[in-house]
Write a structure and sequence with these properties.
Two copies of one chain form a homodimer. The radius of gyration of chain A is 19 Å and the shape is globular. The longest helix of chain A has 23 residues. By secondary structure, chain A is of the alpha+beta class. In chain A, 42% of the residues lie in helices and 17% in strands. Among the domains of chain A are: 60 residues, Arc Repressor Mutant, subunit A, CATH 1.10.10; 64 residues, Roll (SH3 type barrels), CATH 2.30.30. In chain A, the strands form two sheets. In chain A, strands 6-5-4-3-7 form a five-stranded antiparallel sheet. A two-stranded antiparallel ribbon of chain A has the order 1-2. The first copy, chain A, has eight helices and seven strands; from the N terminus they run H-H-H-E-E-H-H-H-E-H-E-E-E-H-E. Chains A and B meet through helix 5 and helix 6 of A and helix 5 and helix 6 of B. The first copy, chain A, binds a DNA duplex through helix 3.
DNA sequence: TACCAAATTTTGACATGTCAAAATATTACA
DNA sequence: TGTAATATTTTGACATGTCAAAATTTGGTA
């Protein structure tokens, strides 16, 4: 019914919508999906005619109920698959994003539910990203990042939002993954610099951009 | 590189080529894949230009080395996935063919090898179909079927070539699956009829067509 | 050997998704 | 408020895969 291309556009819009309620520009969608601007505009018309988004030319788009539900299901598939690949199949967390990108369009409801069952109906994926419920409801918890959290004391890593393989491999080498504890050794706004110490003792120097993608729970 | 459509055509030709060495007509391919005859012809030109088949108009097609290798890899993916779905995920053997039909185009080499490893480098899928090696070599063993095997004595089911879900469910209800033993209670050519008794004691009446799809190893 | 039926190929059309480049709208700023 | 820079949409083209229906080839048979 809905092509994998349509699913990709919906998922993209959904993810952007998660972080702000403003209408989303076609240019942003185009750059995220790495297609030409005109391509995104054309697809917006298609999605709009299918009732999956509302689209006001030059103003932007917004998912409808139907579009939102569909997108949530795609995202659910993606994240359950990621966790399955790590937990059941033993893949590295840095590899599973791109694998899931392919599989999310090919896995049936039956197989997905079986994965979900084998995983014990999990609520987060290997990166700490929340998994939408089977009904299509996503609960995003608000966490501070390494550039917004209070200094001093232990922090528990709960989520890493930058999914690029190289970055994840770097973090893993330093023992920085959801569930692990870290401490901020120094943070300097002017220098765009955060130095993190993981429980392995190693210090890791990060710029603000990557540091902002590491979400933590301040120690209790 | 090669689209999932191309993969489907190659796999189809490969499977037909497994059972005879004659050139394969475009009409047969079209009917197998449920596309219009002209569609198959168009694709034969494409495949031919890509060097995956040799194509003589009105005479038929044949896989090249390259095409054969590619097709074997697709079939390998299909059969490893089927076994994974049954052995690791607990799906019913009657459901996995259609699931694998989708997944075979989306599973990476990395994931496939991991499946293969988890399954202990298996040589046959849940239906007893042989799995091509990672190098793309397929070893088909010759087995008699319920309409060609000798009468009398126990027979071990080794393979079921009809993959339709309803038929497989029927067999399962009667305890007829690879590894199980059966006995031919009667076979009547004129009536197109075979009556099989499984170890559960139940008798199953089959026509010649379905009976021919059940391959057995005569008891030693 | 000529013709007919069946199979195959060709033709013209369409659907989906994509791009580059031209046209148009929006926004910011001078 | 007018204009320039930027973003968006439109246009025309292309690639892949598909169909229905017309044209062609093949092979058997009279």
């Amino acid at each position: 019914m809905t092509s994998s291309t349509v699913e990709d556009y919906l998922k993209c819009i959904y993810l952007i919508q998660t972080r702000s309620t403003d209408p989303i520009s076609t240019g942003l969608i185009a750059s995220q999906l790495k297609v030409a601007p005109g391509t995104a505009t054309a697809m917006m018309k298609t999605l709009s005619e299918s009732g999956l988004i509302t689209y006001e030319p030059y103003r932007g788009v917004r998912l409808t109920q139907a579009g939102s539900k569909l997108a949530a299901h795609v995202l659910r598939r993606h994240r359950v698959i990621e966790l399955f690949l790590v937990e059941v199949m033993g893949l590295n967390w840095s590899d599973v994003h791109s694998e899931a990108e392919l599989l999310e369009h090919a896995v049936s409801e039956l197989v997905l539910d079986r994965m979900d069952e084998m995983l014990g109906r999990p609520s987060v994926d290997p990166h700490g990203d929340p998994i939408p419920s089977p009904r299509g409801v996503l609960r995003e918890k608000e966490y501070p990042s390494l550039i917004s959290c209070p200094l001093g004391g232990l922090l528990k890593v709960v989520r890493v939002t930058d999914q690029s393989a190289n970055f994840l491999r770097l973090l893993e080498r330093h023992g920085i993954m959801p569930g692990k504890e870290v401490e901020i050794a120094s943070r300097e706004d002017a220098a765009d610099s955060v130095i993190v110490r993981s429980s392995s003792g190693k210090a890791l120097h990060l710029g603000f951009r990557p540091a902002a993608s590491i979400l933590v729970e301040p120690g209790e």
